[in-house]
Design goal:
The structure holds two protein chains of two kinds. By secondary structure, chain A is α/β, with parallel strands linked by helices. Chain A contains ten helices and ten strands. Helix content of chain A is 38%, strand content 25%. In chain A, the strands form two sheets. Chain A has a six-stranded mixed β-sheet, with helices on both faces. Chain A has a four-stranded antiparallel β-sheet with strand order 2-1-4-5, covered by helices on one side. In chain A, strand 9 and strand 10 form a beta hairpin. Chain A is globular and about 55 Å long. By secondary structure, chain B is an alpha/beta fold. In chain B, the strands form three sheets. In chain B, strands 1-9-8-5-4-2-3 form a seven-stranded mixed β-sheet. Chain B has a three-stranded antiparallel β-sheet with strand order 7-6-10. Chain B has a two-stranded antiparallel sheet with strand order 11-12. Chain B starts with 15 loop residues before the first helix and ends in a 5-residue tail after the last helix. The C terminus of chain B is likely disordered. Classes of the chains: A alpha/beta, B alpha/beta. At the A-B interface, helix 2, helix 4 and helix 5 of A face helix 5 of B.
């Protein structure tokens, strides 16, 4: 098996309940390097819970999540020690939150935000850190002159782009994104989507994107998973699921979109 | 001559059970250099911020034959130093001194004496905020996890912010250090001028934070490194002039306003060191002008 045939992230029978409430139930998925997987479904369908299970933030009641490290070794995400998982979060993984305030340090300048991961992995040269931060601000279409400004002074779209820069600066291989374009107006959303698509293909980044917005899913993802009540009801290639939905709920979801 | 203690108090104010509890915390702190050990801090007959943590540590390690020196901002005769010295004179009847080299136990707020510390001495620091990551990460659960996992990137983010804002690392006191290659520790609130004195110090260094209920320690001859960047290395403060009283050029200087027409002088903040130098015949620019009372 070549490296491309080994899934980067593999989940088998992932189950998580909060007391009597099901978060997600018996979810299987394979994510290959460079692949973008969309998870769609209504609010409360378990999308974000699944994301947190995959990233090891939630303990599981059942199932297993396996990640292929850079060394080629395959590691059980939930059996890893906390420092190992934290190291992954700092280097190989990215986590983009819906609300940039959850993912940014609001009391730290844009440059400090982008540089934090570099310093966390041991970079100790101020000039280099700053240079890399400027590069990344430009990559996400922000002016380098804003490098010393606080995130507070940025618009919502800029904050979201800053969050993306901060996450991608260590060139991770896997990104978890929770509604990355939620809360942005439509034109800003479109630009952000273009930017994300560019970065994903440039870096060969594999993504798990949670969204309730089918347009975002269609634009970004290669494959889709439709969730309802914590269970996966349909999976397939994006256009296949959106153009020819098989499950009753997928059909409902697709038909609920207003056509302009 | 032994003086007598006021009978209402146990020796050094605290009861023996409390001292044992504090000593256990100190032993653990010495065993894990730089690690903040929680302890059941007691109410002391002085307000928080006046050194309640330092006083408890001192009370726990003080013996009848100890000679105590108390420093506040480098000086032996400022309010905080006087009140704590009197406290132990009254409750423990120990001998006190203002000479660094005679003291066996030194409690300090802000300064490490200019006279090098010796093996066998103990220096106790009064610490207001023991957590170096506190202003970067307000959650205690999170800072503990960061210490446990040696996740100290954030500390450098603070220094990065300093340089981006001021062009140099502008933190001048409570400058973060890494102890024994492991724990990032706050030497608060000493000026960074004193950081190099902590490295490989022959004396035992104990830190007590009363309000925050934490004790930590740097055992003798332990490596203490001030954090910095390769292209912005750590540097201590420097002054354009020497001490106006004793002429010392390598000490931490305090600025003293002498009149309302812009008159000022710079003198050693360590009053004991300054007096010793003057006794030995060293003279600064204004040595005659103020006959040693300025400090």
């Amino acid at each position: 098996m070549s490296i491309d045939e080994i899934p980067l992230l593999q989940a088998a029978g992932v189950t998580k309940a909060f007391g009597p409430v099901t978060g997600c139930f018996n979810v299987d998925l394979d994510l290959f390097p460079g692949e973008v997987l969309g998870i769609v479904g209504e609010s409360g369908s378990g999308k974000s819970t699944l994301l947190r299970c995959l990233s090891g933030e939630h303990e599981l009641q059942g199932g297993q999540v396996t990640y292929t490290l850079r060394t080629g070794e395959r590691a059980d995400v939930h059996a890893m020690s906390a420092p190992e998982r934290r190291m992954l979060m700092r280097t190989d993984w990215a986590f983009v939150h819906q609300n940039p305030r959850d993912g940014l340090r609001m009391g730290v300048s844009a440059g400090g935000n982008v540089g934090e991961r570099l310093m966390a992995v041991g970079n100790r040269h101020y000039g280099n850190i700053r240079g890399t931060a400027i590069d990344w601000l430009e990559k996400v279409e922000m002016s380098a002159t804003r490098i010393d400004d606080m995130p507070e002074t940025f618009s919502g779209g800029m904050q979201q782009r800053l969050q993306i820069a901060r996450n991608l600066v260590t060139r991770p291989r896997l990104a978890f994104m929770d509604e990355p374009t939620g809360g942005l107006d439509v034109s800003v959303q479109a630009r952000l989507l273009d930017l994300l698509r560019g970065l994903v293909s440039e870096l060969g980044l594999a993504c798990v994107i949670v969204t309730h917005d089918l347009a975002v899913a269609r634009h970004l993802s290669h494959r889709l998973m439709v969730m309802k009540g914590g269970e996966v009801v349909e999976t397939g290639l994006t256009d296949q699921v959106l153009d020819d939905p098989q499950h009753a709920y997928s059909q409902l979801l697709v038909s609920s979109i207003l056509r302009a | 001559m032994m003086k007598t203690t006021e009978q209402a108090y146990n020796f050094a104010y605290l009861d023996e059970q409390t001292k044992r509890m504090i000593r256990r915390a100190i032993l653990k702190a010495v065993a894990i250099p730089g690690y903040q050990v929680p302890f059941a801090s007691r109410e002391m007959p002085m307000p928080y911020g006046w050194g309640t943590g330092g006083v408890q540590v001192t009370a726990a390690v003080l013996g009848r034959r100890d000679i105590l020196k108390v420093i506040d901002q480098g000086s032996d005769d400022t309010t905080n130093a006087v009140s704590i010295r009197q406290f132990f004179e009254k409750t423990a009847a120990v001998q006190t001194t203002d000479r660094t080299k005679d003291a066996t136990l030194i409690q300090t707020r802000h300064r490490i004496p200019e006279t090098p510390m010796k093996a066998g001495q103990i220096i106790v620091y009064q610490v207001p905020i023991p957590e170096p990551l506190r202003f970067l990460e307000p959650r205690e659960t999170e800072t503990r996890r960061m210490h446990a996992q040696e996740d100290y990137g954030l500390m450098h983010v603070k220094l990065y912010e300093d340089i981006s804002r001021h062009g140099h690392i502008a933190t001048t006191y409570a400058y973060p250090v890494r102890v024994n290659g492991r724990y990032v520790t706050d030497p608060s609130p000493t000026p960074k001028f004193d950081n190099p004195k902590m490295n490989n110090c022959p004396a035992l260094q104990l830190f007590g934070a009363g309000r925050e209920k934490r004790i930590y320690a740097i055992p003798p001859y332990t490596e203490v490194v001030s954090l910095d960047f390769e292209d912005h290395p750590f540097a201590i403060q420097q002054w354009d002039q020497d001490c106006a009283l004793c002429g010392a050029g390598d000490t931490f200087l305090d600025e003293i306003i002498t009149d309302d027409r812009g008159g000022r002088m710079f003198v050693c903040s360590d009053s004991d060191y300054c007096r010793e130098r003057r006794d030995a015949g060293h003279e600064g620019d204004q040595a005659g002008a103020n006959s040693g009372e300025a400090a």
